[in-house]
Amino acid sequence: MTPVTAALWAAAMLMGLQGSSSFPDSRVDLSSKNLSSVPRDLPWKAESIDLSCNHIQLLHKGDFKNTPLLRFLNISWNSLKDIDEETFLDTPLLKDLDLSHNGLRNLSGQRYLLHTENLLVLNLAFNTFLTMTLGSEFSSLVKLETLALGAQNISLGDFKNIAKVKLRTLTLSLENKTWNYTAGSLIDVQAQRLQIALTGSRILDHDLVADTLSLFAEVELMNLRSGYKDLSEQLIERVETLTSHLYLTNIYISWKDLTDCVNILLRTSITHLRISDVTMYNMPFQETNVTQTSKMKSFTARKAVVKDFFFSQEAVYNFFINIPVESLAMVEMPMIHMTCPKSHSPILQLDFSNCALSDSIFSRVEGEEILECEKLDNVRKLNLVGNNLRSLQMLSKRVQYMKSLRHLDLSINSLVYDGLLECFWPPNITNMTLSSNGLTGSVFKCLPKATENLDLQNNQVSVIPSSILKLGNLSSLNLNSNRLRDLPVCTGFPLLSELLLKSNSLHAPSVNKLESCPELKTLDVSYNPFTCTCALRSFISLGIKSKRRSHTGIQLLSWPKDYYCTYPEAVRDFSLKDISIPEVSCNVGLLAAAILGPAVIVMIAIVTMCHHLDVPWYMGMIWQWTRAKHRARMRQVRPEDLLGVEFHAFVSYSQHDSDWVQNSLLPNLEGPAGGLQICHHEKSFVPGKTIIENIITCLEKSRRSVFVLSANFVKSEWCHYELYFASHQRLAWGPDSVVLVLLEPLPQYLIPSKYNQLKSMMNRHTYLEWPQERAKHRLFWANLRAALQADLPNASVTHEEE
C-alpha cells in the first residue's frame, strides 16, 4: 500500500467510523476473499464495508440496496472498470469512498457521484485516467473535504467543476512515468493543503511547483528522491510565497541537499517546515553553517534514518540546534545527545521526545570539567518524553540556566532521585511532568519551588516525607498509580486545590488529614483496595456528601461508580455507597453500653453455676498441669541435644527479596557486625542433592529458622515447603525456634489458605517488623540478633576445619 493510500485510508477510518460501533455487525471485512462481485447478503446494519484486494470489475445498481446505513466503503485494489450511475442510490449516508488502484478510465464520466452528495473523502488515485478533466458530477460534492486523484495530463480548466468546493486536502498522485502539467491548471482549486505524491525517481515539474507555492497555504511533497537542486533554485526565485506550511514526507536526501534546502527555506516567507520519514546519506565530517536570520517559526524533523556509519554526530546536532526558529522539534530520532547553541538562541519551544538522549544533554566536556549550556535562556517549554534519562538531579543541572523555562515534561524515562544531592532547577518552572519514572517520595526534595502543576503518576511514591521543600504555589498534584497507603498532609502545599490518588494502595483514607488542605476542591481516590471496616466510615460519609447539590466542599471524582470494597471477603466488589457500617459497632462507648448490662447478668449466672458445680477446683487442676508442661518445655537445652547444629539460624526468603537479604540482613547478622552463623540456600545448599533434601539438612543444622515475610514469600512454593518443615522442627525445639520478620505489611486476607500454619504463628507469636525509618534500624538488628543468639558447641570445630 502506497503512503498516499495509507494516509487516506487512515483519514477515512477516523472520520467515517466515528459512531459506527452502534451495532455489533456494523463493520464488515471482506478484503482478500477472491470475490468477483459484491455479495448479496450484506447485513443491513453495516456502516463500514471493506471489499479491497478482490477481483470485482463492475458495480451494479442494487449492489448496496440492503445497506442504507453505509458510511465507509473501500473497494481499492480490485479490477473495477465501470460503475453504474445508480450504484449508490440506496446509500445516502456514504461519507468515505475509496476507489483507488483500479482500472477506471474517464474522470469526466463518474456519474455515480451524483448520488454521493454527503461524501467527505474520495480516493480515485492509481486508476488509468489519461486526463484530469473532472466531470460536472463533481460539482455536487459540496461537502467533500479530501480528494485524491491521478492522471497523465493536467490541463487548464480540469478542475473548474470543483471551483466552489472548499477542500481541506487535495492529493495529486503523479503515478505515471510520463505526465504533463500545464501552468495555471490548479487555479480553480480551493484547498487548504495540496499533497503531491511522486512515484519512482520522478522530478517535480517546474510549473507545478510554481503554481503550488502561489496557490496553497499548505504544501506536502511526498516520496522525493532527487531534484532538490531544482527545487532550491525555485525557492530562491520565490522569496515571497502564499505557502506558509511546507511538509517533506518520505524523502531520500543527502546531507548537503538537506542543509542547502533548509538554509534556503529559512530565507523565504515559509513559516513552518516539517520533515518526516527521511533517509539521509553522505553525512558530514565537519560543521555546516546555518542561516542566522529567518521568518520561519517552527522546524520539525520526525523519524530519520542515517545510511552512513562514520560521520560527525556533533556536526549534525550543531546544525539543528542553531536553526533560528521559535519552535524546534526532533522526535522519534536515534539521537543520543544534543549540543548547546553557539550563541543565544531564539528558540522558545524544544521537543526531543521519543529519542535516545542521555543525562549529558546540552552539556560539553572540556578537560575534566563539565560545562553547562547557557545559550537556551529563551526556552519556555521543553519536552524530553521517552528518552534514556536516569538522574533527576543531573537533569536539574542541565537546565539550570533556562531562566524562561515554564513547562518541563520528563515523563516515560528512567529517572530516580536518592535525596542526597541538591537540585538546581531554574526559578520559573510552573508545570512539571514526571510521570512513568522510578521516583520515590524523596522526589519532593528535588522540585522547582514555583511549581503549580505537578504530574507524578505511575511512579514508586509510597509516602510523602514530612521534610520536603515547601511548594507554596502548587495547585494540582497527580499521584495516580503510585504506592501511597494514606492521604498526604498538605503542610508543604498550602494552595493545593486538586489531588489525584487513583490506583494506589489506600485501604482506609484518613479523612482528618484533609483538614490540612484548606483550598482542596477536587479529590480522586478511585480504584483503591478499600477495607470496608470502621476506619472507612468517615471516608464513605465524605463521598456521600460530595454528591449533594448543596455541597460546597471537596468534590470526590468518579464517586460512587469506581469505589469498591476489597475486604472483608463478604462484601468484596460491593460499591462503597451500598456499605452500611453501624455507628454502634465502631463507637466504644455505645458498644460498651449495649453489651455491659447483659454481660453482668451472664457473668453472675456463670459464677453461680461454677460455685455449685465445683468448676474452680477443676480449673485449678488444669492450670497446675499446664504450668508443669510449660516448665518442662522451657527447660535449658542440653549440650547433647545440640550435636550436629552448626548454624544459629536458617534464613528462608523469596528470591524477589534477595536484594534486601544480601545487602541488609546477612551483613548485620554475620561477620563482625553480628557474629552469627547463618545458613541460606545461596551459600549452604549442596549441589547434587534435591532441594527438599537441602532444606531438611539446613533446618537440622540450624538452631532456629528465620522467615522473611512479604507478598512474594506467600507466592513461593519453596518458601511453603521450608515453612512446613520448620513447623515440624518447632515441635522438638519449642516455639522460640521460629522467628518471623515482616519485610512489608502482609494483611491476613492476602495470605493463601495453604499457609494456615503461618496465619496461626502470626496470630499467636510476636514478630519483628522491618521499620521504614532509618533511625529504627539499629534497634531492629539488636532485637533480631538477641532472638537468634545461642551457644553452638560445634561452632569452633567448624571454623577450625574451614
The CATH topology of the domain at 644-789, please? Answer: Rossmann fold
Shape-level CATH architecture of the domain at 644-789 = 3-Layer(aba) Sandwich
Q: What average pLDDT do the residues reach?
A: 86
What does the overall shape look like? elongated
Residue fraction in strands: 15-25%
Spans with pLDDT under 50 lasting ≥5 residues?
Answer: 4-22, 620-633, 795-802
Q: Can you tell me the CATH class of the domain at 644-789?
A: Alpha Beta
Total helices: the number is 17
CATH H-level name of the domain at 644-789... which superfamily?
A: Toll/interleukin-1 receptor homology (TIR) domain
Give the biggest sheet. Answer: 22 strands, parallel
Question: What this model shows, in words?
Answer:
By secondary structure, the chain is an alpha/beta fold. Among the domains are: 462-580, Leucine-rich repeat, LRR (right-handed beta-alpha superhelix) (Alpha-Beta Horseshoe); 644-789, Toll/interleukin-1 receptor homology (TIR) domain (Rossmann fold, 3-Layer(aba) Sandwich), CATH 3.40.50.10140. It contains 17 helices and 35 strands. The chain has a 22-stranded parallel beta sheet. Strands 32-31-33-34-35 form a five-stranded parallel beta sheet, with helices on both faces. Helix 5 (313-321) links the parallel strand 16 (298-306) and strand 17. Helix 13 (691-700) runs parallel beside helix 14 (717-733). The longest helix is centred in the last third of the chain and has 25 residues, at 588-612. 35% of the residues are buried. Mean pLDDT is 86; it is low at 4-22, 620-633 and 795-802.
